[in-house]
# Entry
Amino acid sequence: MAEVFAGFVVGYALAILAAPLGALALVRSNDRTGVAQRLAPPGTSVIALSVVIHFAAIIVLTALGLILGMALVGIEARRPEGGLGSPNLVYTLLVLALTAVAVIPSFAVPAVRRFSIAAALVFAASFGWAMPWLATFG
# Structure
């Protein structure tokens, strides 16, 4: 049960970080890309956009954290060995694989390459390493 709660906490923490950073990135890039102009036209309030992104990020990232927490419970029951600086090597490799599958297609768009690499590193570090360690404290 501590693993599931740890996933929720990590997902919530990432949602708090993602909202203002995502809103600022979207507003700053709306002079270069048409997608950003449609999502946040010039003159859009960063605070209002941040609230919308925060609402969506809380739903998505906490749900993802709960699912990954349940996966950690199942993997921990079968393969509890640690490795790569994590209490559970198999779980960390699973998170790294999921991160790669989600991020590699975004490398085709040069405008978001740096952002997607940074987001992938934060996601992998948060869910792959911080979450299992947080679960050991509970």
Notes: The CA atoms of residues 30 and 42 lie 7 Å apart. The helical segments are 2-28, 34-39, 46-78, 89-103, 113-137.
